[in-house]
Amino acid sequence: MAHLESLLHVQVPVKNLEEAIVWYCNHLGFSLQVRYRTSAFLALSAGPTLMIWETDEQTSATFTVDHQPMPVFLYTTSDVHALHEYLQAHEVSITHYQNDGFGWVLKFFDPSGNMWGVIQKNN
């Protein structure tokens, strides 16, 4: 039986490809790897690449549990407080920022309505 070996990339929808590329690179530290007509690959220093797809459909990479939005992806950071301050200063919609026992959790929305989660584990 064949098994999965690794996660190559994740895909999210965006409303405006060019604006999304700039937003992810400027606000979250991604770098543009390659851009196509309706999609682009972005990367961080570690982990799978992020592929963003421009679409005019009303969709996002977010789901709900008990009517509460939840992020599909959770990333790690070494300074969640600085990231929170930065996102807050840039008027990003933040829905959760607290120490949840195992670590600090930050949840926010990108301009296309995708919810992102970031964790800084407690030592």
Automatic annotation (TrEMBL):
Q: Which Pfam families match?
A: Glyoxalase
Signal peptide range: none
The record, for InterPro entries, names: Glyas_Bleomycin-R_OHBP_Dase (IPR029068), Glyas_Fos-R_dOase_dom (IPR004360), VOC_core (IPR037523)
Where would I find the VOC domain in this sequence? 6-121
Q: Which domain of life is it from?
A: Bacteria
User: Could you tell me what this protein is called?
Assistant: VOC family protein
